[in-house]
Amino acid sequence: MTRCFTMLKPGVVNRRLVGEVISRLEKKGFKLVGLKMLHPSKEIAEAHYAEHKGKPFYDGLVEYVTSGPVVAMVWQADNCVELIRKFCGATKPEEAMPGTIRGDYCIHTARNIIHASDSDASAEREIKLWFKDEEIYDWNDAEAGWY
């Protein structure tokens, strides 16, 4: 089992799609082990997107993520990062296939609705940035093995 950090960005909250996106991830079989809603500070957003600092989209991305509340989550499954990335779809909406989260709900890259860790190392770093150890709940999943 591995873990993946995901974040539903302010546009998802404003469009009232939080439950829809979480439901799709749960129905796929991902195990939700961490969940919280918060209005991120500029500091946490900058730390989260540190690898993009200096790129043309960086300032706008930080501004968007801090413009309202986000829903931070930790999911767990076999090959979790790889599977969630495929489930989310391509970052660019014009490349995201219908049936993926971005393919179904996103039109503009600058207003991308979901972030998902891009590697196991990124997932570990992002989870530690957004969650304390005691905020992660690895509960007994009676459905394990059915997906």
How would you characterize the overall build of this protein?
The protein has about 150 residues and is of the alpha+beta class. The chain has one domain: Nucleoside diphosphate kinase-like domain (Alpha-Beta Plaits). The chain has seven helices and four strands; from the N terminus they run E-H-H-E-H-H-E-H-H-E-H. The protein has helices spanning about 10-15, 20-30, 40-50, 60-65, 80-90, 100-105, 120-130; strands at about 1-10, 30-40, 70-75, 115. A four-stranded antiparallel sheet has the order 2-3-1-4. The longest helix has 11 residues, at about 20-30. It is globular and about 45 Å long. The mean pLDDT is about 95.
Quaternary organisation: single chain
Main sheet properties = 4 strands, antiparallel
Read across the widest sheet, the strand sequence of neighbours is 2-3-1-4
Number of H/I helices: 7
Per CATH, the superfamily is: Nucleoside diphosphate kinase-like domain
Instruction: Tell me the name of the CATH class.
Output: Alpha Beta
Number of domains: 1
CATH architecture: 2-Layer Sandwich
Distance between the termini: 13 Å
Per CATH, what is the topology? Alpha-Beta Plaits
The ordered H/E elements are EHHEHHEHHEH
Q: Count the beta strands.
A: 4
Helical fraction: 25-40%
What global shape is seen? globular
